[in-house]
Specification:
Largest sheet: 6 strands, mixed
Family: Belongs to the bacterial solute-binding protein 7 family.
Protein name: C4-dicarboxylate-binding protein DctP
InterPro entries: DctP_fam (IPR018389), TRAP_DctP (IPR004682), TRAP_DctP_sf (IPR038404)
Structural class: alpha/beta
Bound molecules: (2S)-2-hydroxybutanedioic acid
Oligomer: single chain
Keywords: Periplasm, Signal, Transport
Number of helices: 16
Strand order of the largest sheet: 7-6-8-5-9-11
Subcellular location: Periplasm
């Protein structure tokens, strides 16, 4: 009974203050949209919170709200500017209303692999991109990796002509809309949390995402199969508001940023393994994966190549050249 009484006291105090923060601690809410289990963003966000809560106890208190439980990506940046959430990590495709610089990451077949993405983000150009939204009140803290995207649909996709006339869910990005139009498909921008239902009910026929998201959201269960195209990048920028960062005293900010930088390096280095594990998990769960021959893949490259010219002005030839030089 004593144990039960103690447990109910804990339960009561936990519901009164769900984050369990102590008085005087700086409360940090990190809102994101993916699952936490075996997902690159979920794992990194959880690790960040664990380290902050252990090493900055008494100063800072972080809670992660995954699975779109607090905000969708189309709401979270405004919520951040209102001070309702302190950290978020939307994919680079979701910053269109704040900056057009990240469009380079959405251009199909721009980067050959995640090592090239990492090198580009770490270059002077990539690092400067983290400051590109300061004027709008947002500061990038670091890029977090997810992986390369694959296409899935309710019919087999082998040739790009197989996508013609199908409806594909895309993230809210004009580049991704143009990419699907280049395939003769119909792009439907939609929040991540709605994709499984939309695939299941036939509101859309297909989607593009990484292995971690395809497994994490179980998209493969409601698709004919997934075609391993590796045609684009899905990566994140962890952001905070300029106002919130300015409100921290220098020591607190430095300690937080040291932990953040270490977590970023550790989890980005592990992303290849997480990606491969999720690909395997799709197979183990009975999902169909179609691999393309080099000739078949070249057809997809040709079909989507015109998209680069459409966004040349936003992205800059010099940045395309820099990305291509890293691939080589
Ligand atoms: C998506 O909307 O498909 C992704 O941006 C979700 C995510 O955060 O990985």
């Amino acid at each position: 009974a004593a144990v039960l009484a103690a447990m109910s006291i804990i339960a009561t105090s936990a519901s009164a203050d769900p984050m369990g923060c102590d008085d005087g601690e700086i409360v940090v809410k990190f809102s994101h949209v993916t699952n936490t289990d075996r997902h690159p963003k979920g794992i990194a966000a959880t690790l960040l919170a664990e380290r902050v809560n252990a090493e900055m106890d008494g100063t800072m208190c972080m809670e992660v709200f995954p699975n779109s439980t607090l905000y969708n990506d189309d709401q979270v940046l405004e919520a951040m500017l209102q001070g309702d959430v302190q950290l978020a990590a939307p994919s680079l495709s979701k910053f269109e209303t704040f900056t057009k610089q990240f469009r380079i990451f959405d251009l199909p077949f721009m980067f050959s692999n995640m090592e090239a993405v990492d090198a580009f983000q770490g270059s002077e150009t990539g690092v400067a991109m983290m400051d590109s939204m300061q004027r709008r009140g947002l500061q990038g803290l670091g890029f977090w990796h997810n992986g390369l995207k694959q296409f899935s649909a309710n019919v087999p996709l082998v040739s790009p002509t197989d996508a013609e006339g199908l409806k594909f869910r895309v993230q809210t990005s004009d580049v991704l809309v143009a990419q699907m139009e280049a395939l003769g498909a119909s792009p439907q921008p939609m929040a991540f949390s709605e994709v499984y239902g939309a695939l299941q009910t036939g509101v859309v026929d297909g989607q593009e995402n990484t292995w971690s998201n395809i497994y994490g959201q179980k998209f493969f269960e409601v698709q004919d199969g997934t075609t391993e195209t590796n045609h684009g990048v899905l990566d994140y920028l962890v952001v905070a508001s300029v106002d919130w960062l300015d409100s921290l005293d220098a020591d607190t900010r430095d300690q937080f940023m040291t932990i953040f930088t270490e977590v970023t390096a550790e989890r980005n280095a592990a992303v290849g393994e997480v990606d491969a594990n999720n690909r395997q998990a799709v197979l183990d769960a009975g999902g169909v994966i179609r691999e393309l021959t080099p000739e078949q893949r070249a057809e997809w490259v040709t079909a989507m190549q015109p998209v680069w010219a459409q966004f040349l002005e936003d992205v800059g030839q010099e940045n395309i050249d820099a990305a291509q030089a890293i691939n080589a």
